[in-house]
């Protein structure tokens, strides 16, 4: 397995993996393109968005984990500046997420880390997270939900600490979590450990 910068050609995998990372929230938000008649399917809208729209949610901010069998996973991150570009598409279900993100301005926000089901358990998610931390010049932040104990444990093992919670506005009958959880990690020292651990 190796990790490489994404290319525009990875956009279809990126949108599928983003939907996996968000437990279907990405599809919910992308349905706006279908309702407006611009696209037939949400994932088509998302693929074109990642491929052709500049900004935080672009293939240019993605790392791809690849094995001999092809794309296995991805991560997406960008600097939170507090400007309008930090936000995704307008949707009421995203408002609690945007509120939490506003508490992490000045950090590198890891928006998504996802691995295809058949590649899980091989350390790919851990390797992607490490690569994201390596490209962060300062502190890092990430949001997950309170039902994702595996992700929470992984992030905490890398020195992330909980900074706040916000209620989840229901977007799916199958999503059981009730709160979004914001975690942050201070800037790393030269050895990769959080600076507070020196």
From TrEMBL:
E.C. number(s) listed in UniProt: 2.3.1.-
Q: Which UniProt keywords apply?
A: Acyltransferase, Transferase
**Which Gene Ontology molecular function entries are recorded, alphabetically?**
acyltransferase activity
Instruction: Tell me which InterPro entries the record gives.
Output: Acyl_CoA_acyltransferase, GNAT_dom
Q: Which residues form the N-acetyltransferase domain?
A: 1-186
Q: Does the keyword Acyltransferase apply?
A: yes
For this entry, the protein name equals: GNAT family N-acetyltransferase
Source taxonomy:
Bacteria, Pseudomonadati, Pseudomonadota, Alphaproteobacteria, Hyphomicrobiales
